[in-house]
């Protein structure tokens, strides 16, 4: 029986229900800021890439949800994301390791709303600006279209908020390509923009606003033009050095939202998010193409904003790692850092500017560091093993570094982790020597299983007095009971699944007293589709939130993903250039052919399609009869990753 208070509300369909452990502080910080279901889903997908699985499910047409997951005992938060609303607090589930069902009724209340227009110094609207609540990395954000309008109307409780407005200036995809898919550990991806933006750069802006649930606050933001720094990168002979990355850091050592790649003539320009102040311009060793890193200081504004760099070939430090008896140590990790530079108390800017280098020893224990080495004295550290033994020495750049690691023998622990019922391998299980499993930083000593469930721990020990510490290992994996077993060679460890915890419930919304602001605001923009170097702009005017867009050449159709408030009216108008697609057109809404609510018109150059729909519609598909030019199959495959509205690519980004 539903409580009387619930009967007076409205069941919420397509609500995103997320269950996460209270100890997962990183994920909690992401979802605590609220946000639309699509943005939160993107954050969860990014978290899953980092092996942080978070159970989630959507409600059905009656607002009901059911989630069956094997959850470790503990306390979990149940958070619901619905456009236009904020979830009630204290939706907590205690999991005790049994299969006892947990039943919840979750009440949604109208969110506070903040909306406005982002303009430049001349008052012109700026497209492609990210507007985020609480943090630039928040999942609660919107992106302006051609008219500069933004709307934040989800997940905002009564209180004071920082509202950030900025143009993303770092394209992680380009940097990733520059490194040939090397992992980027120091960069955060800040919601890349894949639709029409301005070429100009702007200085980020933060506003403090007091918001109240159920009420609209208007916030118009004028962004100032960014200063610019440009220059040329050459080698010691004066030749241009193309394809190196240049970054800017402020006086606090924080990376500014701008980056540049040198062109074929070695030239670069940094022109986003540069306010007046002191900056360090850096070419770090990670992106310096085997040259030594370089840096320069600049204060803005300046009479001369030119910063040129002359790169010198990296120095070299080579050597050998052995154990006390002179036997080589293979696969040891080598790390070199300038003397006097300490990671803990050094700004990131100075750390990257000084340069560091890493390498692995070969089978003869030898190594060479030949990238990122400048002149001067370096501290070279060698470490080896899953529970590592390490040693360091000081050497001059260009010298030999022979390092002795103090251990007498190694213990090798290998095995495989499988599901006890199915026998299937368990990927990403953690295997830790039992003595270390109670240490807060136990993950530093852990081996992770691969796709076939295999693991290997190599442990250097000085003598037999410590061997017994490694007689057992503790194995854990999400959704499984942990096990402590002997660490004998070639062990197959079978883990039992935790009993599935059934969490069910219903999501009920209090109907807002007035139409959500999102339903009465009309936003205008251009969705840019690209094929074989040609760009086709489809005009779009809508009162819904655009989530994604894609073009499918074989079917000659475009798919627009939307997000909106339940029980409200939506309207979307498309202006499609005939050189891109031509009619007659067929329209479907959430996969169902739309016979009513669709009107078409055309002129010499464009076809206009107007669609009346429910505001919480999720997908519009428009299929043309012809496409100009016709797309052959190979080109269709290449066009599958065309320009869209927005996506969460990251790292996190």
From TrEMBL:
Gene3D superfamilies: Carboxypeptidase-like, regulatory domain. It comes from the Archaea. Coiled coil: none annotated. One of its GO terms (molecular function) is carbohydrate binding. InterPro entries: Carb-bd-like_fold, CarboxyPept-like_regulatory. The chain crosses the membrane at residues 631-648. Keywords: Membrane, Transmembrane, Transmembrane helix. This is Carboxypeptidase regulatory-like domain-containing protein.
């Amino acid at each position: 029986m539903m409580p009387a208070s619930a009967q007076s509300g409205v069941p919420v369909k397509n609500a995103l229900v997320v269950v996460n452990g209270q100890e997962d502080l990183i994920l909690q910080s992401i979802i605590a800021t609220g946000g639309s279901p699509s943005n939160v889903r993107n954050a969860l997908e990014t978290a899953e890439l980092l092996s942080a699985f978070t159970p989630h499910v959507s409600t059905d047409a009656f607002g009901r949800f059911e989630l069956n997951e094997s959850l470790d005992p503990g306390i979990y938060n149940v958070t619901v994301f619905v456009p236009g609303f904020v979830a009630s607090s204290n939706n907590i589930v205690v999991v005790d390791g049994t299969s006892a069902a947990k039943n919840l009724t979750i009440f949604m209340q109208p969110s506070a709303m903040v909306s406005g227009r982002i303009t430049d110094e001349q008052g012109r609207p700026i497209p492609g600006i990210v507007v985020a609540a609480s943090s630039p990395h928040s999942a609660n954000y919107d992106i302006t279209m051609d008219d500069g309008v933004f709307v934040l109307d989800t997940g905002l409780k009564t209180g004071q908020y920082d509202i950030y407005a900025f143009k993303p200036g770092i394209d992680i995809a380009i940097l990733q390509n520059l490194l040939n898919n090397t992992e980027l550990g120091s960069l955060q991806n800040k919601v890349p923009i894949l639709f029409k933006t301005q070429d100009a750069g702007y200085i980020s802006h933060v506003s403090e606003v007091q918001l109240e649930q159920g009420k609209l606050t208007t916030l118009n933001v004028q962004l100032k033009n960014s200063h610019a720094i440009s220059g040329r990168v050459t080698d010691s002979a004066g030749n241009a050095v193309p394809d190196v990355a240049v970054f800017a850091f402020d006086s606090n050592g924080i990376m500014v939202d701008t980056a540049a790649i040198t062109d074929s003539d070695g030239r670069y320009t940094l022109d986003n998010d540069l306010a007046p102040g002191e900056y360090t311009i850096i070419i770090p060793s990670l992106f310096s193409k085997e040259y030594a890193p370089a840096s320069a200081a600049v204060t803005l504004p300046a009479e001369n904003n030119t910063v040129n760099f002359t790169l010198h070939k990296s120095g070299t430090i080579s050597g050998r790692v052995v154990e006390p008896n002179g036997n080589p140590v293979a696969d040891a990790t080598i790390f070199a850092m300038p003397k006097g530079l300490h990671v803990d108390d050094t700004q990131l800017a100075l750390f990257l500017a000084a340069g560091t280098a890493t390498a692995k020893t070969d089978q003869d224990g030898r190594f060479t560091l030949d990238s990122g080495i400048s002149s001067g004295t370096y501290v070279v550290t060698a470490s080896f093993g899953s529970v590592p033994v390490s040693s360091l020495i000081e050497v001059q750049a260009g010298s030999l570094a022979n390092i002795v690691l103090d251990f007498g023998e190694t213990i090798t622990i290998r095995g495989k982790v499988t599901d006890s019922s199915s026998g299937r391998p368990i990927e990403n299980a953690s295997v830790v020597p039992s003595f270390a499993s109670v240490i807060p930083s136990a993950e530093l000593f852990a081996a992770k299983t691969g796709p076939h469930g295999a693991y290997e721990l190599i442990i250097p020990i000085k003598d037999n007095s410590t061997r017994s510490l490694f007689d057992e290992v503790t194995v854990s994996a999400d959704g499984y009971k942990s096990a402590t077993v002997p660490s004998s060679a070639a062990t197959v460890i079978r883990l039992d699944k935790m009993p599935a915890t059934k969490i069910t419930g219903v999501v009920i919304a209090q109907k807002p007293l007035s139409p959500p602001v999102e339903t009465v605001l009309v936003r205008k923009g251009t969705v840019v589709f690209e094929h074989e170097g040609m760009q086709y702009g489809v005009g779009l005017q809508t009162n819904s939130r655009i989530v994604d867009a894609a073009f499918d050449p074989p079917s000659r159709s475009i798919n627009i993903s939307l997000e909106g408030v339940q029980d409200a009216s939506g309207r979307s108008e498309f202006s499609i250039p005939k050189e891109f697609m031509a009619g007659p057109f067929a329209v479907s809404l959430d996969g169902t052919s739309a016979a009513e609510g669709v009107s078409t018109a055309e002129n010499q150059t464009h076809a206009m399609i107007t669609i009346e729909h429910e505001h919480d519609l999720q997908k519009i598909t428009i299929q043309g009869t012809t496409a100009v030019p016709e797309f052959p199959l190979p080109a269709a495959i290449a066009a599958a990753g065309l320009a869209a509205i927005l996506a969460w690519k990251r790292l996190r980004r």
